[in-house]
From TrEMBL:
A GO CC term assigned to this protein in UniProt: caveola
Keyword list, A-Z: Cell membrane, Lipoprotein, Membrane
Protein topology in the membrane: Lipid-anchor
One Pfam family recorded for the sequence: Band_7
Identification of the protein by name: Flotillin-like
Segments forming domain Band: 31-198
């Protein structure tokens, strides 16, 4: 058998060598493989993974996020610095250990990558609303990319490309379909409103132009007729004047100046009358025409105002309806948020109370633990003191040869017991004034006392009883002096102070 073989990897492959002389795993593009070593080739080509990630937004709306990720191991770049090369080699080594052995069963790698992507996507989507996800698709893609890359670093993998497609509705939850229908309906309604408003403006403008044209035409006609009447009246005046002058000139030749003057005056009066009648008729005709034109103008204005009011009322009603709908939605939203805020406040209050109760319980527990610890230390000190005293007494008893009484006397002397007892006894008798009373029973008292032993030996019971009775008076007297108590009357009475006994 050959001692060594030379192995070479393809451009998109690496050699992973383990065994004799290698502590961990050796990566190379070409190497000698000796006896006792194993060499495996693994591919570093990126692989496409296509998923349909099922996630849920902050409003608990489920959706499907189709995505295609191109993922492969990190490889050393040409011209990279030494520290970067070491990091990339470490990442490639992780890939060779953890992922490369699974490439024969690609489903394992697929499930691993899918699990990471689904987990990070769901966590990120749970913090965003559907509107934020839909409008910020680019930002959402970048966040997913960064989070997934952080997880893939521990396997030595890198994302070469990530393509996130448009969001798709989950069957039974047609959010995006309804959103598209809403947008289309809003656009259609806005178009209808715009068309109606443009039509209204066109009709109102046309009516305004038509009325203005008629007003200007009527005004020009009236001014033309007034000027014509004025010119006619002036012509008649001139004509009458010329005729009167000619008549005067002709009548001047006549002999009867008075008749000529009278005839001239009559004709002049007739002409004046005709001229005045013509002027009045012209003025009345102009006034009548002006009134008719004014009535027509007012009727047109009324029609124009009616159409304008209709259009305005329609626009106002439409705007008011939309405004009321928006206000209702805003009121519902504000009330909902107020209820959520109240619930959140109650929860925070309950948590604060619980925390306060826990703090009080912890404080009480610490105080009780401190007391218990103090008691334990006190008991331990007493036990140590007692043990020391016991050892001391045992050593002293052994030194005294086991003589217990000698040990007791020594301990009492050492502890000052005798001195303390003497002090107590001295304090007890201090200030006392003892009183001694002497009783006698006649002249034979001394003889009776001297013969007490003989009488006792004689065994006379009567004399013994008599001796007891003789002891009672001094006993009762002593009790009275010490305590102030008197004997009962049936036993007798004590003598008064100063009396002879």
């Amino acid at each position: 058998s050959e001692m060594a073989t030379f192995r070479v990897a393809d451009a998109s492959e690496y050699l992973a060598i383990t065994g004799w002389g290698i502590d961990d795993v050796k990566l190379a593009k070409k190497a000698w493989v000796f006896v006792g070593q194993q060499c495996k080739k693994f591919s570093i080509s990126p692989v496409n993974y296509e998923f349909e990630v099922h996630a849920m937004s902050a409003e608990k709306l489920p959706f499907i996020l189709p995505a295609v990720f191109t993922i492969g191991p990190k490889i050393t770049a040409t011209g990279a610095e030494a520290s970067d090369k070491r990091d990339l080699e470490a990442q490639l080594l992780l890939y060779a250990k953890l992922i490369a052995p699974l490439h024969r069963s690609r489903s394992h790698v697929h499930e691993l990558v899918k699990g990471i992507i689904e987990g990070e996507t769901r966590v990120l989507a749970a913090d965003l609303t559907m509107e934020e996800i839909f409008k910020g698709t680019k930002t959402f893609k970048e966040k997913v990319f960064n989070r997934v890359q952080l997880e893939l670093n521990q396997f030595g993998l890198v994302i070469y490309n990530a393509n996130v497609k448009q969001l798709v509705d989950v069957p039974g939850h047609e959010y995006f379909s309804y959103l598209g229908q809403k947008t289309q309906q809003d656009a259609a309604n806005q178009a209808k409103v715009d068309v109606a408003e443009a039509r209204m403006k066109g009709e109102v403008g046309a009516k305004e132009r038509e009325g203005l044209t008629r007003q200007n035409a009527a005004k020009v006609d009236a001014e033309t007729k007034v000027l014509s009447v004025r010119q006619q009246g002036q012509g008649l005046k001139e004509e009458a004047k010329v005729k009167a002058e000619v008549q005067v000139f002709e009548n001047a030749r006549e002999a009867d100046i008075a008749a000529a003057k009278a005839e001239l005056a009559m004709k002049k009066a007739g002409f004046d009358k005709q001229a005045k009648v013509a002027e009045v008729e012209a003025a009345k005709a102009v006034a009548i025409r002006e009134a008719e034109l004014q009535m027509e103008v007012e009727r047109k204005n009324a029609m124009r105002q009616t159409e304008k009011l209709k259009a305005e009322q329609l626009s106002k009603a439409t705007v008011q309806y939309e405004t009321q709908v928006q206000e209702s939605n805003a009121l519902f939203y504000s009330r909902q948020k107020a209820a959520e805020a109240a619930l959140f406040e109650q929860m925070r209050t309950a948590e604060a109370r619980k925390a306060q109760a826990d703090a009080q319980f912890f404080e009480q527990k610490m105080a009780e633990d401190a007391k218990l610890y103090a008691k334990q230390k006190e008991a331990e000190s007493l036990a140590l003191l007692g043990r020391a005293k016991t050892e001391y007494a045992a050593s002293m008893l052994q030194a005294l040869g086991g003589n217990y009484y000698a040990l007791r006397d020594y301990l009492m002397i050492d502890g000052g017991m005798y001195t303390e007892m003497a002090s107590i006894n001295a304090g007890a008798v201090n200030g006392m004034q003892p009183k001694i009373s002497i009783w006698s029973n006649g002249a034979g008292a001394d003889g009776a006392a001297a013969n007490a032993g003989k009488e006792a030996a004689g065994g006379s019971a009567l004399q013994q009883v008599a001796g007891v009775y003789k002891m009672l008076p001094p006993l009762l007297s002593t009790v009275h002096e010490q305590t102030g108590m008197l004997p009962p009357a049936w036993m007798g009475a004590l003598p008064k102070d100063g009396a002879a006994n």
